[in-house]
Amino acid sequence: MKLKSIHPFPARMAPEIALEECRTLPLDARILDPMAGSGTVLRVAAESGRTSVGCDLDPLAVLISSASTSGVPPEDIVPAATNLAGRARTLEEEELHPTWMQDPETRAFVEYWFAAEQRKALTRLGVCLASENGDLGDVLRVCLSRLIVTKERGASLARDVSHSRPHKVRQENDFDVMPEFLRSASVVAKHLAAAPVISRAEVTRCDARRLSHLSDASFEAVITSPPYLNAIDYMRGHKMALVWLGYSVPQLREIRSSSVGSERGAEPRHDSAVIMGEVRGLAWFARLPVRQASLVRRYVADMCELMREIARVVVTNGKAVMVVGNSCLRGVYIENSRILEMAAEAAGLRFINVYVRDLPSSLRYLPTPSGLISDDLGKRMRKECVLTFAKA
Q1: At what angle do helices 177-194 and 116-129 cross, to 10 degrees?
Q2: C-alpha 33: how far from its chain's center?
Q3: Residues 89, 178 contacting (CB under 8 angstroms)
């Protein structure tokens, strides 16, 4: 299945996995993706007419997922972008001081990563977007973010922003923001027109470990891809766009530090101690340095909380499908899939099966480094595990 994303996003779930799982469910099934990312599962469900709900802590992930499944008429996007760009050009100087840019750290951040001309144009668009409500406003925000979250040349002075590995490569930039914004709107409209949605998804910014707004036994299936330990720092790249959409750097730092799978070390909650005891018995854990062992404890605690919530919201005989890669910390191969299996079983989910699929070169987060084909890191970057559980 060729599913065009409306926005770059690292390590997206393969759409064929979501499609295959959706096909096994009745049309009236409710599907949850509690870590929706760019919304692949939600988009597949929406195109098939199934009801879906998505959650994510990353504001840009929520924005992309919402925009791609909202059902905004594609023909409305370019005229709306043209109108917004026209208004942005006419703003007076005193209007170009949005509240979120008053934070000194945020101002220093944008002055480092963006040249003067691009800062002016992005501020104009950001100010106008702040008053845009509804689904069409979300689509226009995505159009702006696409100018920044790119692999190569974009509105910033960096490259590899879309891989969440931004590094500054220039001091000047001749990127013309306004016409590129309209070009971005045209691309988004084309992608949405190519695969119209039948039913829209409900997308909420919330923590997958705390789904208190969702009722017990309310979903026939959960299909999601948890982060693997120490893998991708999504916020590192996404904050370069979010600072133009109403977020300050301190706000984004707080979101990043509380995300599932983050590097912040923490002692496990009491209810994950049993699983941690089992993990300590695995051969690879003894080879970890102290700091990396602390990261594993945090990850185990996160996965226990996540799987407990998933078990709560899935109906009896419902299923949970988890797609996860394994990790490598200081040369030690970490079995994230095994941690996930332990956490799921502790939460009351019955293990059904697991299969390992090759990750196509074109879909890898980063190319596999040369010389690593036969070692653990090379294997980790080439494959991912698809685990299926059922609720008894």
Answers
A1: 50
A2: 11
A3: yes
User: Domain range spanning residue 189?
Assistant: 74-194
Handedness of CA 205, 209, 210, 211 (dihedral sign): positive
Q: Which two tokens stand for residue 347?
A: 């939460």
Q: Are 253 and 350 in contact (CB under 8 A)?
A: no
DSSP 133-153: -HHHHHHHHHHHHTTTS-SSS
CA-based angle 329:277:376, to the nearest 5? 25
Residue 384: strand pairing partners? 357
pTM of the model: 0.90
User: What is the tens place of the pLDDT at every residue in 39-87?
Assistant: 999 999 999 999 999 999 999 999 999 999 999 999 999 999 999 999 9
The number of domains in the chain is 1
In a domain, 111, yes or no: yes
Which of 11-25, 145-159, 362-376 holds the top average pLDDT?
145-159
- Distance, in Å, from the CA atom of 260 to the CA atom of 357, rounded to the nearest integer, reads 24
Domain-located, residue 53: no
**Per-residue pLDDT at 124 exceeds 50:** yes
Contacts of 230 (CB under 8 A, 6+ apart): 261, 263, 292, 295, 327, 329
The string of pLDDT tens digits covering residues 199-255 is 999 999 999 999 999 999 999 999 999 987 766 788 899 999 999 999 999 999 999
Contact 309, 208 (CB under 8 A): yes
Instruction: Specify whether the CB–CB gap between 239 and 249 falls below 8 A.
Output: yes
Higher pLDDT, 263 or 104: 104
Among candidate residues 218, 182, 232, the one with its CA nearest the CA of residue 365: 232
Is there a domain that residue 122 lies in?
Answer: yes
Q: Does residue 133 lie within any of the structural domains?
A: yes
Please check whether residue 235 is in contact with residue 276, taking contact to mean a CB–CB distance below 8 angstroms. no
Alpha carbon of residue 23 to chain centroid: 24
Residue 203 φ then ψ, to 5°: -120, 130
